[in-house]
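Agenda item 2: nicotinamide-adenine-dinucleotide complex prediction
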Amino acid sequence: MSDAQERLRSVIVGCGGIARAHARVLAECDEFDLVAVCDLKEDLAREFAGAFERVEPYSDLREMLERERPDVVSVVTATDSHARLTIAVAQAGVRGICCEKPVATCMAEGREMVAACRKHGAALIINHQRRMGPPLVEMRSLIEQGAIGEVYLIRGSCAGDILSDGTHLIDSIRWLAGDGDVKWVLGQVYREEPDPSEARSPGYTPSGGYRYGHPVETGGMGVFEFTSGMRAEILCGGVQSPGRAYHDCEVFGTKGRLWRQGDRADPPVLIRDARGGGWREAPLPQPDARGRAMANSYCAFARTIREGTAHPLSGDSALKGLEVLMAVYESARTHAKIELPLRQDSFPLGLMIEEGRA
Ligand SMILES: NC(=O)c1ccc[n+]([C@@H]2O[C@H](COP(=O)([O-])OP(=O)(O)OC[C@H]3O[C@@H](n4cnc5c(N)ncnc54)[C@H](O)[C@@H]3O)[C@@H](O)[C@H]2O)c1
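Presented output:
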């Protein structure tokens, strides 16, 4: 590695569930040198750092930034803190920020994050890692080759709420649709009365009607149309497609279909087309599909930071996905079909709760 290609000094903020996946990639990838981690819970940071060689634990972000002078910061905290922390890190003068999905809890915060990173010269990516994994890369390539004719519908289903989990579906669908613009969105959500004795969850498991520090619905669905005319449908949480696994994605074309039956167990990409004979496996060019998405993303990020190359997970791209997502909630709030661009800066589900309608 030349001087110009010294390893990028990297740190992680937030040592919870998904942080280990980031740490593993950063520790194993030649491009990065994981030097420190930070969590408000001091013990957690110490234990997390202890699993790696020469990684310093911190409980204060500012102290970590001042002492370690990182090139790259991974923001892996609950969603309600993404904007605040990403902006603070950008202001500190780093070269790159990988923030976890979803971008933020509303459009206003998301736009502020992207603008702050641009202003301070930090490359920003949002970790919708699935589009960097071989299955979705192969599905998009098959679509582009015309393997199933003209795509007219993509349907996705997952457990969880639209903001935390549906965000992956929307990002994957946008990827499969060639990242075209979305014209309109129609959505509906319902929220069961939370147990008032439960504390509001700051993390993965919903409690008190909250998850990752923001309110969540019990079930939600959205339909949207791209300017190309292609339609998409998402079904989440309480209305997820029965019998389908997490992040099930089916693509309907005029000459055939593609189907990935979820992605927790790393199923193959299935295809059926004019050859007949029902579903068959579409061979993937790379093995070990599941573990590669985040590694592929970080490797591409190193090139983005060094050479300014475009990254498929850019903040600008994620902001477009967030707009679709927020439009699903806004449609539910207003009982209207929402034409994009969305004119709602706040989190519509939060507004519905304030208005006593969710
Ligand atoms: N890309 C994916 O597949 C994927 C999977 C799971 C979670 N996520 C996202 O990752 C984020 C984190 O999820 P998680 O399940 O790891 O959450 P978690 O609650 O398990 O961990 C978050 C950690 O951040 C720490 N923290 C909060 N504020 C902090 C601060 N100011 N400074 C330092 N530490 C702070 C908390 O103490 C906690 O330990 C969420 O936004 C979630 O949506 C993404």
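Discussion summary: Residues 13-19, 38-41, 44, 61, 76-79, 81, 85, 100-101, 127, 129, 164, 203-204, 212 surround nicotinamide-adenine-dinucleotide (CB under 6 Å).
Owner for follow-up: CH.
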